[in-house]
Design goal:
Number of strands of chain B: 0
Structural class of chain B: mainly alpha
Mean pLDDT of chain A: 82
Strand order of the largest sheet of chain A: 6-7-8-3-9-10
Order of helices and strands of chain A: EEEHEEHEHHHEHEHEEHEHEH
Low-confidence stretches of chain B: none
Number of helices of chain B: 11
Strand content of chain A: 15-25%
Mean pLDDT of chain B: 85
Strand content of chain B: under 5%
Helix content of chain B: over 70%
Helix content of chain A: 25-40%
Number of strands of chain A: 12
Oligomer: heterodimer
Shape of chain A: globular
Radius of gyration of chain A: 19 Å
Largest sheet of chain B: none
């Protein structure tokens, strides 16, 4: 494996809630300008991983962002990370401008930065509109603008498109690609896997608090190129899963009533590809 | 602007926009005016009383209402953000946990204090226009004491907020504290005096366990310097400490009560990260 620059280094992340191990030795690194999808079923540890990276929860192991240990200097790390939660709880009575002004003060951003970012996420005309009157897509773009206030090199996006329609999702993905082009590292958790191939460079799959798969899209495509896979999935998710696999170049067919997670299919595909090489 | 200032400013802005501040100030003003007016009517002549009598009448209203408002709003600070799913988002910003907590606390104390001062100020202006004599100093002193009590009770409310998993639980704890400090403590005091051989020193120590009682006695010292209204306990306090000594001791205790809860809340919030 070739050596690469690292903007984020997470080593041995372990988090316990009572007797439950939410994370169990999770280790990965992120390179500058990389979009990484963090996948896994509910309860796999995705949000907990984000909390560890942000230093807002106690955990065993270490996190360094831009060479700064989060346990030693959480504020400095959080200045280098823009975080977008799954649901933003901005006050409905605040205007877009007020939201960014407040968060800009917390992040030490210049006042004009809010205007720049509202332009950038195409909310300049909604500057004086109250958050309660924005559509779901607009709110997510506002949250993305908030995440960018301190011009962070790293973005953590927790299910950023979960509540968006297809058009808004596409628009949001375009913004992410622009941000990657600027050299920002983006790690996003998502259930919308059908467009993963278009926007992500790499996939990390968590299962029961452990890393079940960490592979680049190129590795996945290479491992599965020209092969067909039998997919056992729940009927309601069939189309989505087949589209998702197709989106990253994996041809798949056949459906039974078995419930198989997309992430498990990816892992199986990669394993089979490696065995055949 | 630093993080504490930014959080504080936001808290005040939220309080103003939620309108409770205006309602609280208006309620205080109306009740203060009403108490003054009705107090005079009960004495046989309808009209507004002078400042000292008004201040004495309003004292009990202050000790009832200000802790209730401060405790309940304090209980909503951290627990409210947690309920809205906003706590992790706020903590993901480049600020420390103590900065978030102290900013919220300071903003809330400022908002409630401004509302209190506005409500009392309005009542004071109206009463001063009609009263026969004025004792503005005592009136202002009462305001200062109420603001201090607001600071104490907001801090206790914030503790309830930090240790609770949701806002309802925090409010429940806050109401228990209010019930004990404002309503039940007097009964405890009476029971203690009648069932034990607690001397004046012991009684003074027990009194200092309750910031509401500290404020009440400080107010009485300035309204009725002979402390006759406190009976033998008043005589003991005057004989052993004198007016100045008693004021200094009780003021120091009140200052400790202002600092201790918010300090404890910071420690608890820091250790409660999950």
């Amino acid at each position: 494996m070739s050596e690469r620059l690292e903007i984020v280094r997470a080593a041995g992340l372990t988090k316990r809630y009572g007797r439950l191990r939410a994370l169990d030795g999770v280790t990965f690194t992120l390179a500058p300008g990389e979009i990484v999808a963090l996948l896994g079923p509910n309860g796999a540890g995705k949000t907990t991983t984000f909390k560890c990276l942000l230093g807002v929860t106690n955990f065993d192991g270490s996190v360094e962002v831009d060479g700064i240990p989060v346990k030693d200097n959480g504020k400095a790390v959080r200045r280098r990370i823009g975080y977008l939660p799954q649901t933003t709880a901005f006050d409905a009575g605040d205007t877009c401008q007020q939201v960014l002004e407040f968060l800009g003060e917390l992040k030490g951003a210049e006042p004009e930065r809010a205007d720049e970012l509202l332009e950038r996420v195409r909310l300049a005309e909604q500057r004086g509109i109250r958050v309660g009157h924005l559509s779901g897509g607009m709110r997510q773009r506002l949250a993305l603008a908030a995440a960018l206030l301190s011009d962070p090199p790293v973005l953590l996006l927790d299910e950023p498109t979960a509540n968006l329609d297809a058009a808004s999702r596409r628009e949001f993905h375009d913004l992410l690609l622009e941000l990657r082009a600027e050299g920002r590292t983006i790690i996003l958790s998502t259930h919308f896997v059908e467009s993963l191939g278009e926007i992500t460079d790499r996939v990390i799959v968590l299962k029961q608090g452990k890393v079940a798969l960490d592979a680049t899209m190129d590795d996945l495509k290479r491992a599965t190129s020209g092969r067909r896979f039998m997919v056992n999935v729940n009927g309601t998710e069939t189309r989505v899963l087949l589209d998702a696999l197709s989106g990253i170049g994996i041809a798949a067919e056949r459906v039974t009533a078995m419930n198989t997670q997309f992430e498990e299919i990816l892992a199986a595909a990669l394993r089979e590809g490696e065995e055949q090489r | 602007m630093n993080a504490v200032g930014a959080i504080m400013k936001k808290e005040v802005r939220d309080a103003v926009s939620s309108r409770w501040l205006l309602l609280y100030a208006a309620a205080f003003a109306v009740l203060a005016l009403g108490l003054s007016y009705l107090g005079q009517r009960n004495l046989g002549s309808v009209g507004f009383e002078n400042f000292s009598r008004t201040t004495a009448s309003i004292l009990n209203l202050c000790l009832l209402l200000a802790p209730l408002i401060a405790l309940s709003l304090g209980a909503g600070t951290i627990a409210g953000e947690r309920d809205r799913g906003n706590l992790t988002y706020l903590l993901s910003q480049p600020l420390s946990r103590w900065e978030l907590l102290v900013g919220k606390y300071a903003g809330l104390v400022t908002a409630i204090s401004v509302a209190t001062i506005a409500g009392f100020g309005l009542a004071g202006v109206v009463i001063a226009s009609f009263a026969h004599s004025m004792d503005v100093t005592t009136y202002v002193l009462l305001l200062v004491l109420v603001v201090a009590l607001v600071a104490v009770m907001t801090g206790l409310g914030v503790i309830a907020s930090v240790v609770s998993s949701n806002r309802v639980q925090a409010l429940g704890i806050a109401m228990l504290v209010w019930f004990f400090a404002v309503l039940f403590f007097d009964l405890v005091l009476i029971g203690t005096v009648s069932s034990t051989s607690l001397g004046g020193t012991g009684l003074l120590a027990v009194v200092m366990l309750n910031p509401v009682e500290i404020v009440r006695i400080l107010a009485i010292i300035h309204l009725e310097p002979d402390l006759q209204v406190l009976g033998p306990f008043g005589s003991y306090v005057l004989e052993t400490l004198g007016t100045t000594g008693a004021t200094a001791l009780l003021s120091a205790a009140l200052a400790a009560w202002v600092i201790a809860p918010v300090g404890a809340a910071v420690v608890l919030f820091h250790s409660a990260r999950d």
